[in-house]
């Protein structure tokens, strides 16, 4: 799994936008101004790709216990954000896509009803 695959998957989410709110090396994907994925590009360039994603707190703990390559996200709310280290090749592309989907859905679920309706998606 490479940066381009992860980038394209995040960007295809309804109304996803790529931003650089922190610096030129930290790519952040947002929906309606709210973050759902964070990718430190300099680490990808060094062969140490990672992505930070929002996660249900109980599931976040389960994932951290099951996978060595999933840790509490640095500089984020550790109850709600995980960092997935992809260089260990422990996480499958399907699992990563599922975690991205969950992160996006969690963020969308916290949007106003009006914002959700403007996304024109089924929020399940």
UniProtKB/TrEMBL annotation:
Highest taxon in the source lineage: Bacteria
Organism listed in the record: Mesoflavibacter zeaxanthinifaciens subsp. sabulilitoris
InterPro entries, A to Z: YjbR, YjbR-like_sf, YjbR/MT2646/Rv2570-like
Protein name: MmcQ-like protein
SUPFAM superfamilies for the chain: YjbR-like
